[in-house]
Design a protein that fits this description.
Low-confidence stretches of chain A: none
CATH topology of the largest domain in chain B: Enolase-like, domain 1
Strand content of chain A: 15-25%
CATH class of the largest domain in chain B: Alpha Beta
Distance between the termini of chain A: 51 Å
Structural class of chain B: alpha+beta
Helix content of chain A: 25-40%
Oligomer: heterodimer
CATH topology of the largest domain in chain A: Ubiquitin-like (UB roll)
Number of strands of chain A: 5
CATH architecture of the largest domain in chain A: Roll
Largest sheet of chain B: 5 strands, antiparallel
Number of strands of chain B: 14
Helix content of chain B: 25-40%
Radius of gyration of chain B: 19 Å
CATH architecture of the largest domain in chain B: 2-Layer Sandwich
Distance between the termini of chain B: 49 Å
Number of domains of chain B: 3
CATH superfamily of the largest domain in chain A: Beta-grasp domain
Order of helices and strands of chain B: EHEHEEEHHHHHHEEEEEEEEEHHH
Low-confidence stretches of chain B: none
Bound molecules: flavin-adenine dinucleotide, FE2/S2 (inorganic) cluster
Largest interface: A-B, 30 and 26 residues
Number of helices of chain A: 5
Chain lengths: 157, 288
C-alpha cells in the first residue's frame, strides 16, 4: 500500500492553494517542495531547533512535525509573506540593520518567531523578546543582536 | 514512514468508529510524528482529533475543572482557571518544550504517550485528577494514578480515547507545586516532582493530607507513598521536610541511562521533593 493522496486547501500567505498531497507529507516539505517556498528551513527535523518555524492559525509551530493534511483549511504564514513587494517588513529591516544574521540559516525561523511575538505583544520587554525566540537555535550570530533586532522592530511597527 | 490513511473526523462518535486496532489517534503530533517516522507504530490509519469541536475546552464544572484532552500546553499555561488553583499543573505546562512545542502539544497526548518523564503527569497525580475515557459504548473514569502501566503503555483499551481530565477543586488550606531538573531547556526531565499539601484546619503547621508524585525515576510516573505517610499528620518543620525527601528517594526506582545515573536521579528526587514540599506548603498557607 502507498500512502493515499488527499486534496487539501491551505491559505498560504493570504493565497488559497489546493493540492493533492500524500497523507504523510510534512507541512515543511509541502511548503518547500510542492509550493517552492524554500525560505522555511529544515534543521533538525525533530522539533528541537525552530529553523522550520511558521505560523499556523496564528500560532508559531515547527512545520517539520506537522502533516500538510493537518493544515487543510488553515492559514499558514511563512517568511515569504513578510515583505510587502519590495518593501521589507520592520523585522527584516531591523535584522539587517542590527547584523542579526550571519549564515542566515536560522533567520527565517527567527523572523517568524519575532512576528508571532509582536502579533501578540507589540511592545515586548527585552526578557519577553528573548523568551519569544527561545525555541529557535542560532549557531553563529548569537542571540544578543537578534533580540536587539526584535526590540528595534517593535519600536518601528 | 509506513503508509497510512489520514482521517479527520468531525465528531467524537465518528472518531471512535474509526479507531480500529490498527488506527492511532493524532493530537498535536509532537510525539507521534517522530514515532511514525521511526516506524515505531504499526498504524495503518491516523485519526486526527483536532477537528472535533469542544475537545480542547478548559471549563469550571461542579467540583473542579474539566480540561479537554486536546487542550494545548500553551492554553493550559495561560489559563487563569488553572493558575488560580493548580499551580503545579500551570508550572508543568509552561516548561514543556519550546513555544512551538506548546502551541501544538496537548495534555491528552502528554498522558496517552505515557513517557515516564511526562511533565504533566506528576502534577495531575498530586492533585488527585482523573482521566475521562470514552469508547463507542460510553465513558468511564480512570484516576491518573492508575493510567500508566509502563513506558508507552496506558490503561486505555483498544478503541478508547482520552476525552478529558477532571481535576477536583482545590480544598481550603491546600497548595501544590512542581519542580524538575533537565540537562537543557529542550530536553525531557531527568527527574520531576509535584507536591500537594493540605493543612489541618486547627493547626496550620500540620499536614492533614499530602501527595507526592515523581517522574522519570521508574517505568511510570510514581506516587512516593512513604514520603506521603511521613508527612501526613506531621508538623511541617525542616526536619520533616528532610525526612520526606529521604523517603521519596527510597520510593524512587531510577535507572542509569544516557541522561543521568540512577544515583544522581535519586539525589535529585531528594532535592526536588524538599523544594516541592516547601513551596506547596507556602501556597497552602496563602504565602505565595
Ligand atoms: C522538542 C520537543 C520537546 C518536548 N519537551 C517536552 C517536555 O519538556 N516535557 C514533556 O512532558 N514532553 C515533552 N515533549 C513531548 C511531547 O511534546 C508531549 O508529550 C506532548 O504533550 C504530546 O502531546 P501531543 O498532543 O503532541 O501528542 P501526540 O504526539 O499527538 O500523541 C502522543 C501519543 O498519545 C496518543 N494520543 C494523543 N491524544 C490522545 C487521546 N486524546 N486519546 C488517546 N490517545 C491519544 C497518540 O496516539 C500518541 O501515541 C517534547 C517534544 C518535543 C518534540
Ligand atoms: S527543523 Fe523543525 S524544529 Fe528543527
Ligand atoms: S545566523 Fe547562522 S544559525 Fe543563526
Amino acid at each position: 500500500m502507498e500512502t493515499p493522496r488527499i486534496r487539501i486547501t491551505v491559505t498560504v500567505n493570504g493565497e488559497a492553494v489546493s493540492e493533492d498531497v500524500p497523507g504523510d507529507r510534512s507541512l515543511l516539505d509541502f511548503l518547500r517542495d510542492d509550493l517552492g517556498l524554500t525560505g522555511t528551513k529544515e534543521g533538525c527535523g525533530e522539533g528541537e531547533c525552530g529553523a522550520c518555524s511558521v505560523i499556523v492559525g496564528g500560532r508559531l509551530v515547527d512545520a517539520c512535525l506537522i502533516f500538510a493534511a493537518e493544515a487543510d483549511g488553515r492559514n499558514v504564514e511563512t517568511v515569504e509573506g513578510l515583505a510587502d513587494g519590495e518593501v521589507l517588513h520592520p523585522l527584516q529591516r531591523a535584522f539587517a540593520a542590527a547584523g542579526a544574521a550571519q549564515c542566515g540559516y536560522c533567520t527565517p525561523g527567527m523572523l517568524m518567531a519575532g512576528k508571532a511575538l509582536l502579533d501578540r505583544n507589540p511592545s515586548p520587554t527585552r526578557e519577553e523578546a528573548a523568551h519569544g525566540i527561545a525555541g529557535n537555535l542560532c549557531r553563529c550570530t548569537g542571540y544578543g543582536t537578534i533580540i536587539q533586532a526584535v526590540m528595534e522592530a517593535a519600536k518601528e511597527s | 514512514m509506513r503508509p497510512f490513511h489520514y482521517r479527520a473526523p468531525r465528531s467524537l462518535d465518528e472518531a471512535l468508529a474509526l479507531l480500529t486496532p490498527r488506527a492511532v489517534p493524532l493530537a498535536g503530533g509532537t510525539d507521534l510524528f517522530l514515532k511514525m517516522e521511526r516506524r515505531q507504530t504499526q498504524a495503518d490509519t491516523v485519526v486526527d482529533l483536532k477537528r472535533i469541536p469542544e475537545l480542547d475546552r478548559i471549563e469550571a464544572v461542579d467540583g473542579g475543572v474539566r480540561i479537554g484532552a486536546l487542550a494545548l500546553m500553551d492554553s493550559l499555561g495561560a489559563s487563569s482557571l488553572i493558575a488560580g488553583q493548580y499551580e503545579a499543573l500551570t508550572r508543568s505546562a509552561r516548561v514543556v518544550g519550546s513555544i512551538q512545542t506548546r502551541n501544538r502539544a496537548t495534555l491528552g497526548g502528554n498522558l496517552a504517550n505515557a513517557s515516564p518523564a511526562a511533565d504533566t503527569a506528576p502534577p495531575l497525580m498530586a492533585l488527585g485528577a482523573s482521566a475521562e475515557v470514552a469508547d463507542a459504548g460510553g465513558t468511564r473514569q480512570v484516576p491518573v494514578d492508575r493510567l500508566f502501566l509502563g513506558p508507552g503503555r496506558t490503561a486505555l483499551r483498544d478503541g478508547e480515547l482520552l476525552t478529558a481530565i477532571l481535576v477536583p477543586a482545590l480544598p481550603a488550606r491546600a497548595g501544590s507545586s512542581f519542580h524538575r531538573c533537565v540537562r537543557t531547556a529542550m530536553d525531557i526531565a531527568l527527574v520531576n516532582c509535584a507536591a500537594f499539601i493540605r493543612l489541618d484546619e486547627d493547626h496550620p503547621d500540620t499536614v492533614a493530607e499530602a501527595r507526592i508524585a515523581l517522574g522519570a525515576v521508574a517505568p511510570t510516573p510514581l506516587r512516593a507513598a512513604s514520603a506521603e505517610t511521613r508527612l501526613a499528620g506531621a508538623r511541617l518543620d525542616e526536619d520533616v521536610v528532610e525526612a520526606a525527601g529521604e523517603c521519596a528517594a527510597s520510593d524512587a526506582r531510577p535507572i542509569d541511562d544516557v541522561r543521568a545515573s540512577a544515583d544522581y536521579r535519586r539525589e535529585m528526587v531528594r532535592v526536588l521533593t524538599r523544594r516541592a514540599i516547601r513551596s506547596a506548603f507556602r501556597r497552602a498557607r496563602g504565602e505565595a
